[in-house]
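Researcher: Let's do a round of design. I'm pasting the structure tokens now; please hold your answer until I've finished.
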């Protein structure tokens, strides 16, 4: 029995352990699914809520972000920021705020014609967040902004003779050189004894200290040898030249080349390359290519140190030959230990020839397209390590001057740091500098306008988030940049863009301004408390008075077409289009009277408000200066229509109150309708002379008149005469296609 009990107990333990294990597995699966679900939600990214306190109140400045918990404003959708940890959420909010301030300053500088370096400003703004830690990632946004700054060349003077594409290549190369300089300094600081730098601080001293560490297993180096006869030192000429160039120490590289017998022939070629900013004459490229051929034919000699391959690498850079570079990469696949070294080598060899070919026949240069095509063979996940290092891929795209694909990828990247925010501002920098027309990326040969339109779309989409949150001021700033992007960036502010670019910019600017104008508070923001934009933000973007008038006139029409009658009337009043405003009021009043007659509950308050607005406009019109004679006539016509509609409205009100006799008296008094029983019959087509707004109210007015006639006794035959006049009027207008029940009602009353 004891044995059986032990077995049963063991079985129970096993079953309990199995159940515990299954519960643990289920819980882990649930946690994984929950994480995946939250990550999928994070793709629905919206900005944090904004504080809408006015500047004059001493509160937070417009556009500055506040924590979501303290905001009473309701978002238009779920926010990915709400799913982030508190520290990350605050960081994203702060990033949004500092970027917005730069955009505002950029717009002000461009409008005033002042110098402004957007890449530098955004880089400084990002660095102010204090997020230097990379978190184990090889590329962070600070590194990205430094690359953008170098690409734009804001911290250096580019030669006028260098093309825009070549200046981008040089900028990418300088960024990689900056990174390598940091790497060298880190290595030296990590191995101070081996570096033996001492008190020397020159660039060449740093390179030699780095080589002492790198080549510590090769023996005595030539620059450390006191007496070469005692022990033959290792010749580091080519190593010194390469690492000086790789670190951006061009003068030191030239100095080493001139001082060494081994590089005597190479020195003039290097000088040509440095002086030309990476471009060399055809004869220099041919000489370097020929030297490469010699070295390839010689092959590696037994016992020759591997670092001599730097000589071949340097000659390949000068030659810029696709054949030599491809062969070098094929024969020595382990030449580069990092992708940065590889990219620096290729970018140093790339030369920008018109038409993509060298003037030296038979020498096909390695082009930027070749580099882009090679890099694009690999999927983004290859570079990002399946998303673990998300910025590596856009970083590689930027280094290979695939600017538009880089910001497009970054704008769609979902993550805790909300990289779509950075993408929009990188797009602003690239568009402002006008570089998107130069390069798009291998396999993406977009037109000039297509590239700028794509960047503009990214900026506009970001700005629309502010619009949804009700921060019209910041939406306006970003919309201005979106419009400037299609206009070519900086040149659009000065009018130096092409005719097509200026046309596209004006169209988009007006479209985006109209979008803001349609929002609550949009009229006040753009036009100010009074006037037609002289006191508002509109004058910043439309400086010409006639242009503002034309824009507002068109916007008022669009408001009318969209059913935004109140806004249309307000705009028309601001620009002095009083007859148009009255026409809009009359249209709305006519519709309200028809709705009131059909039993709409709020019709009475609506009609009262419209009549009040109409009277206000007429009062303002009396004191408005510089009104044309034609406008006065139109206003007079609209005033007549307004009074006619008021009369019709009063008849409806009397009927609703049961005052049928008073209502009939008012019907008889109507001067624009032949219903007075004491007046002689007229054959004139009265209906055709009426406004369409009044015509629309007549069917219901006739029904009301018949109802009143049915409820009042005819003591003197006048009511019978009125019935006859109404029937005659109806018969004369049979083609109007009025409601059938109206004809039936009139027929029954006869």
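Researcher: That's everything. Go ahead.
Model: Designed sequence:
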């Amino acid at each position: 029995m004891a044995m059986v009990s032990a077995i049963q107990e063991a079985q129970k333990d096993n079953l309990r352990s199995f159940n515990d294990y299954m519960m643990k597995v289920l819980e882990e699966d649930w946690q994984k699914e929950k994480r995946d679900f939250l990550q999928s939600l994070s793709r629905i990214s919206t900005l944090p809520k904004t504080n809408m306190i006015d500047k004059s109140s001493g509160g937070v400045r417009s556009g500055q972000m506040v924590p979501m918990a303290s905001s009473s404003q309701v978002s238009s959708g779920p926010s990915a920021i709400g799913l982030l940890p508190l520290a990350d959420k605050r960081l994203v909010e702060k990033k949004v705020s500092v970027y917005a301030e730069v955009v505002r300053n950029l717009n002000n500088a461009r409008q005033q014609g002042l110098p402004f370096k957007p890449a530098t400003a955004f880089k400084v703004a990002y660095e102010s967040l204090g997020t230097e830690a990379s978190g184990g990632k090889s590329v962070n946004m600070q590194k990205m902004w430094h690359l953008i700054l170098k690409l734009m060349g804001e911290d250096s003077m580019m030669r006028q003779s260098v093309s825009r594409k070549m200046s981008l290549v040089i900028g990418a190369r300088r960024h990689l050189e900056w990174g390598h300089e940091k790497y060298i300094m880190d290595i030296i600081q990590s191995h101070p004894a081996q570096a033996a730098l001492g008190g020397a601080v020159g660039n060449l001293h740093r390179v030699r200290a780095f080589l002492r560490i790198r080549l510590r297993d090769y023996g005595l180096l030539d620059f450390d040898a006191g007496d070469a006869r005692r022990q033959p030192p290792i010749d580091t000429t080519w190593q010194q030249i390469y690492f000086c160039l790789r670190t951006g120490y061009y003068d030191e590289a030239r100095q080493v080349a001139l001082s060494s017998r081994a590089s005597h022939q190479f020195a003039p070629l290097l000088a040509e390359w440095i002086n030309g900013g990476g471009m060399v004459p055809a004869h220099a490229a041919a000489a370097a290519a020929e030297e490469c051929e010699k070295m390839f034919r010689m092959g590696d000699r037994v016992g020759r140190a591997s670092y001599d391959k730097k000589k071949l690498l340097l000659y390949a850079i000068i030659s810029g030959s696709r054949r030599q570079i491809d062969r070098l990469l094929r024969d020595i696949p382990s030449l580069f230990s990092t992708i940065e070294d590889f990219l620096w080598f290729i970018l140093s060899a790339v030369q920008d020839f018109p038409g993509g070919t060298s003037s030296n026949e038979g020498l096909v240069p390695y082009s930027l397209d070749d580099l882009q095509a090679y890099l694009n063979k690999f999927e983004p996940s290859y570079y990002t390590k399946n998303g673990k290092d998300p910025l590596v891929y856009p970083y590689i795209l930027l280094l290979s001057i695939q600017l538009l694909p880089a910001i497009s990828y970054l704008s769609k990247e979902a993550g805790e740091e909300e990289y779509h925010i950075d993408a929009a501002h990188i797009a602003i920098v690239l568009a402002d500098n006008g570089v998107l027309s130069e390069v798009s990326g291998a396999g993406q040969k977009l037109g000039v306008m297509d590239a700028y339109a794509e960047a503009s779309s990214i900026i506009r989409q970001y700005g629309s988030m502010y619009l949804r949150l009700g921060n019209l001021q910041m939406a306006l700033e970003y919309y201005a940049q979106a419009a400037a992007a299609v206009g070519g960036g900086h040149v659009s502010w000065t009018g130096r863009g092409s005719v097509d670019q200026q046309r596209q910019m004006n169209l988009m600017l007006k479209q985006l301004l109209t979008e803001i104008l349609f929002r609550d508070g949009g009229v006040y923001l753009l036009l100010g408390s009074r006037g037609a934009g002289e006191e508002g933000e509109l004058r910043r973007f439309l400086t010409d008075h006639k242009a503002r008038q034309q824009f507002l006139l068109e916007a008022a029409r669009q408001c009318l077409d969209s059913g935004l009658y109140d806004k249309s009337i307000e705009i028309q009043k601001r620009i002095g289009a009083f007859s148009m405003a009255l026409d809009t009021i009359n249209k709305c009043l006519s519709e309200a009277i028809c709705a009131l007659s059909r039993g709409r509950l709020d019709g009475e308050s609506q009609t009262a408000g419209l009549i009040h607005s109409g009277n206000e406009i007429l009062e303002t019109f009396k004191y408005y200066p510089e009104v044309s004679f034609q406008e006065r006539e139109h206003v007079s016509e609209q005033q007549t229509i307004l009074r006619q509609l008021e009369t019709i409205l009063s008849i409806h009100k009397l009927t609703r109150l049961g005052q049928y006799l008073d209502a009939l008296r008012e019907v008889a008094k109507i001067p624009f309708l032949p219903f007075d029983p004491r007046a002689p019959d007229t054959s004139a087509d009265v209906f055709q002379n009426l406004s369409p707004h009044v015509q629309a109210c007549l069917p219901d007015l006739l029904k009301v008149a018949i109802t009143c006639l049915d409820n009042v006794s005819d003591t003197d035959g006048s009511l019978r005469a009125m019935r006859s006049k109404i029937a005659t009027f109806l018969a004369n207008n049979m083609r109007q296609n009025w409601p059938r029940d109206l004809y039936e009602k009139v027929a029954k009353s006869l």
